[in-house]
Design brief:
Blueprint lengths: L7 E2 L2 E10 L2 E8 L4 E7 L2 H4 L2 H14 L10 E5 L2 E5 L4 E2 L6 H20 L12 E3 L5 E3 L4 H4 L20 H7 L5 H4 L6 H17 L9 H10 L13 H10 L11 H12 L10 H16 L3 H6 L11 E5 L5 E3 L9 E3 L5 E8 L2 E8 L5 E3 L7 E5 L5 E6 L2 E6 L4 E7 L4 E6 L4 E6 L7 E4 L6 E2 L9 E10 L3 E8 L5 E7 L7 E7 L5 E5 L5 E7 L2 E8 L4 E10 L4 E4 L3 E5 L4 E8 L4 E9 L5 E2 L5 E6 L4 E6 L5 E3 L6 E6 L5 E6 L4 E6 L7 E2 L7 E6 L5 E8 L3 E8 L13 E4 L5 E6 L5 E6 L6 E6 L6 E3 L5 E6 L5 E6 L3 E9 L4 E3 L3 E5 L10 E3 L5 E8 L5 E5 L1 H6 L3 E2 L2
Antiparallel strand pairs: 1-2, 2-3, 3-4, 4-6, 5-6, 7-8, 8-9, 10-59, 11-13, 12-13, 13-14, 14-15, 16-17, 17-18, 18-19, 20-21, 21-22, 22-23, 24-25, 25-26, 26-27, 28-29, 29-30, 30-31, 31-60, 32-33, 33-59, 34-35, 34-58, 36-37, 37-38, 38-39, 40-41, 41-42, 42-43, 44-45, 45-46, 46-47, 48-49, 49-50, ...
Helix pairs in contact: 3-7, 3-10, 7-9
Length: about 850
């Protein structure tokens, strides 16, 4: 019996029908407990009313629920008379497909079968209808083992699902007969070789687009399975010979002669998908020759000259530069420190990079012996990739999870959850992954590479205003390095420390300014080097890893540069930083306007009259003002660090953070009169908000004991402290509280805190702190009030603009559940990534504009530093 939308089965609410099959009807449903959508397969009444069969089905389903594989649709359990399953979005498998696509899908299907067979689970009903292809190319095999789970009790003459033709199960048989193995069609006991037969049938149909065994009736189809030979002439001409042999072995009617293990099929497919590899290098000269061969292929007209060099030795001082183009129709994603990225494999034979192709972001890998890059399926939304030491896996961040792609098997696995924006990771030789997270309350985190729960690895130095650790790199001798950033977000300091005692750190680079931190590599000349970005210049210098200090001179390797990754002889960098474009969006997420030209902006605040926008441009970190009518930008400050501009309510004054240490300053919005300090402290400060009446400001101050605290100060309308006024603490707690915003009626303050272990948005009463309510439900940052105070906006940790309706009573705060307005464009970074217009209907957002530009590779880069390069500034 069909179920109407809104019907409840236990905690599951029916949303819409999906389809029907031999085992019942399938519905999209919402799990009201876990707040996720699932697929419910509602069993037929004749099945559900049989207690013995339901009990057996429950036991079988529990076994199947143990399957955990990225290519297998998960079974969550049994609820009343329904099977609860993972909801898989995508298209059902259909042919014909291009040979490479078919083999890619077949490899994933084989991997799923292999995982199940290792646990003694046989699918028994593998067919295209049970295989879905997600939009990112990931294959999901559905209904694993359900044919066995649905069998009649043992001893029943109709216990074989392949022979049952009763009315309640005819649909399953009609859809299954063409994929049965001969032994299954005869009603014999089946094992994993039945799945191998079905796999062969599915692969044949993917390649040809034609049914291998077909008939007008079930009997005709079964007769074809038992007697008809496949028409091998229908296979496309491009089918590799090993795949033709594999199909014949899978479709042997005598199962003793059939392929015995699906893992062998996977290996055959992997080899067919891999182009012939170059001989393994035996020394540094061969590495150079391999890269020069790749360079020749990519340089086109210069290729003949380059290839001619393969027959002659390469001089030690010979340097080759070439460009790596993005895939057809795509562009490299290099959105500063919190998005995109590139990574050269440790063995120097491949490069991985984040690419946007037709709006889809994922990891692409270019091998040295191939002219084209390939997309790694299942890496959608990936950012900041990094390799395992053996160059066999690539780890990356995506959708608040740390994941790993296995290049040999083509599978993606989850390692752990990430409580915020990912800021780089590294794979240690002892099986750990150390990584940074922007919003995490502590320093670097560590987790077993095999998966688990992260634990704290380094501790922040709060006495010096540190707010995050990031970009870890492994060093020889059981040591590592990382970057530390203070509240002054333009500066990084690089430290080195032993893995066994991270607190015993040594200063390597003071106050390094840049986007990608420091990158360690051992050159093929036997020396150790450190690379980093200074402004827009890529700098390299020798590193004494025994004494943990830089030696000799530093040299400019390239300018401009924004991302860098290197192996012992190959260095790849992005030659120009991504620009950010201010764009207007409406509440539905539609772009409705563009403001000004692209630039390296990291902040935005709309003036009270809406005529100008205060922003900060990276590099020298100066404040600029953009006219909203004309988009014309003019510099307000120069020659120094100027962060977090804040408009006075009358629009005549701007407060900002500057100086050393960074304290509060003011300047006329017209630039007259120069800069004037308004507070002086030994710790860092930053302005956050200015009350509408112009008499009170809210600001951050760092404290060794508590981190970032919220303070207030009475000021005049032009930003000078009121006579006799002294700073007053508003919230002092042993966590970081920042980005505070007064409500329009001044009855409460919205702010961001990491007291839960990740960034969340809270609202607390003001000026007394008697009531506090958490607003975000799954992490949040950058709170902003709507103009009338009835709405609070914030950014979720997965980059969505969220809205919360607010009901503020005399002594109470009643928020609604957050609702998504729209997904913010990728590459959103900075402390002020968006602002709300006075009408509450438009949002000014920083959008990263990745240029369609190539990467640059340098072969034999140690020779460049030996030659002296250019003296670094």
């Amino acid at each position: 019996m069909s179920l109407a939308c809104g019907t409840r089965l236990g905690p599951y609410e029916i949303l819409a029908p999906i389809g029907a099959g031999g085992m019942g009807e399938v519905y999209r449903a919402r799990d009201t407990r876990l707040k996720r959508e699932v697929a419910l397969k509602v069993l037929p009444d004749s099945f559900a009313s049989d207690r013995e069969r339901m009990a057996r089905f429950q036991r079988e389903a529990e076994v199947l629920a143990a399957l955990n594989h990225p290519n297998i649709a998960a079974i969550y359990g049994v609820e009343e008379r329904a099977l609860v399953m993972e909801l898989v979005e995508g298209e059902t498998l259909k042919g014909p497909l291009p040979v490479e696509t078919a083999l890619n899908y077949a490899k994933q299907i084989a991997d799923a079968l292999e995982a199940a067979h290792e646990k003694g689970i046989v699918h028994r009903d593998l067919k295209p209808a049970n295989i879905k292809i997600k939009p990112d190319g990931t294959v999901k095999v559905l209904d694993f083992g359900l044919a066995k789970a649905a069998e009649e009790p043992a001893g029943d003459p109709q216990s074989s699902p392949t022979m049952t033709i009763s009315p309640t199960r005819a649909g399953m048989i009609l859809g299954t007969a063409a994929y049965m193995s001969p032994e299954q069609a005869r009603g014999k006991v089946v094992d994993k070789r039945a799945d191998i037969w079905a796999f062969g049938v599915v692969l044949y149909e993917m390649l040809t687009g034609r049914a291998l065994f077909a008939g007008e009736t079930v009997s005709d189809t079964l007769a074809s399975v038992l007697k008809s030979d496949p028409d091998w002439t229908r296979l496309p001409a491009g089918t590799p010979a090993p795949i033709r042999r594999l199909l014949r072995r899978c479709l042997e009617r005598d199962r003793k002669r059939r392929l015995h293990d699906i893992a062998d099929a996977r290996l055959e497919i992997e080899e067919a998908l891999t182009e012939p590899e170059l001989p393994a290098p035996s020394g540094t000269k061969q590495y150079r020759l391999a890269w020069i061969a790749a360079a020749g292929l990519l340089l086109g007209a210069g290729g003949a000259w380059q290839l001619s060099r393969l027959r002659s030795p390469l001089a030690d001082n010979h340097i080759v530069r070439f460009q790596i183009q993005p895939p057809q129709g795509g562009r490299f994603v290099l959105a500063g420190a919190f998005g995109g990225g590139l990574a050269v494999s440790p063995d120097g034979r491949a490069a991985a990079f984040i690419t946007n192709v037709d709006g889809s972001i994922g990891i692409w890998v270019r091998s040295l012996d191939a002219t084209e890059a390939r997309l790694l399926p299942g890496t959608e939304g990936a950012t900041v990739p990094f390799w395992s030491p053996d160059s066999k896996l690539i780890a990356f961040s995506a959708f608040d999870k740390l994941r790993a792609f296995d290049l040999a098997h083509g599978t993606v696995s989850n390692i752990c959850d990430i409580p915020g924006r990912f800021t780089g990771g590294v794979w240690s030789d002892d099986g750990r992954i150390v990584f940074g997270v922007r919003e995490y309350v502590g320093g670097l985190l560590q987790v077993a590479a095999s998966g688990g729960t992260p634990s704290e690895f380094t501790k922040l130095d709060r006495a010096h205003g540190e707010i995050t650790h990031s970009w870890p790199q492994m060093l020889p001798g059981g040591r590592f390095l990382y970057s530390a950033r203070a509240i002054d977000s333009e500066n990084e300091t690089v430290y080195a420390a032993p893995l066994r005692d991270p607190e015993r750190r040594v200063l390597l680079l003071p106050a390094v300014r840049g986007l990608s931190g420091a990158s360690y590599v051992r050159g093929d000349d036997g020396n150790d080097y450190l690379f980093w970005i200074r402004g827009t210049t890529l700098v390299g210098q020798r590193l004494d890893t025994d004494k943990l200090r830089l030696t000799g001179d530093s040299y400019s390797v390239a300018d401009p540069a924004v991302w860098v990754s290197a192996s012992r002889n190959v260095l790849v960098y992005a030659p120009s930083p991504p620009a950010r474009q201010f764009q207007w969006f409406d509440r539905a997420g539609r772009q409705i306007g563009i403001l000004g030209e692209p630039g390296d902006y990291v902040f935005c605040r709309i003036s009270p009259d809406g005529r100008r926008v205060a922003t900060v441009r990276a590099g020298p970190a100066d404040i600029w003002l953009l006219e909203t009518a004309r988009g014309v930008a003019s510099r307000l400050t120069s020659r120094g660090i100027h962060l977090s501009p804040l408009w006075s309510p009358n629009g005549r004054t701007i407060l900002f953070a500057g100086g050393t240490p960074v304290n509060l300053f003011r300047i006329s919005a017209e630039g007259s009169g120069g800069e004037e300090r308004i507070l002086k402290s030994e710790t860092r400060q930053a302005p956050l908000d200015w009350s509408k009446d112009g008499h009170l400001i809210l600001y951050n101050e760092a404290a060794p004991e508590t981190g970032l605290d919220l303070w207030t100060l009475e000021v005049t309308p032009d930003g000078k402290p009121q006579p006799g006024a002294k700073p007053q603490p508003y919230i002092r707690a042993p966590f970081n509280q920042t980005l505070g915003r007064f409500s329009p009626d001044m009855r409460c303050v919205a702010y961001q805190s990491d007291e839960s272990g990740r960034a969340e948005v809270y609202v607390q009463s003001f000026p007394e702190t008697h009531d506090k309510v958490r607003i975000s439900t799954a992490g949040g940052r950058n709170p902003e009030w709507g103009p009338d105070g009835r709405e609070l906006l914030y950014v979720s940790l997965d980059g969505k603009l969220m809205a919360v309706a607010m009901k503020l009573g005399p002594r109470s705060v009643e928020p609604s559940l957050p609702r998504e307005l729209f997904v913010l464009p990728n590459g959103l970074t900075g402390l002020g990534p968006f602002d709300v217009a006075a009408d509450g209907q438009r949002f000014l957002v920083q959008v990263t504009v990745d240029k369609i530009e190539p990467l640059t590779a340098i072969v034999n880069w140690p020779a460049l530093l030996k030659k002296g390069g250019a003296a670094a500034p």
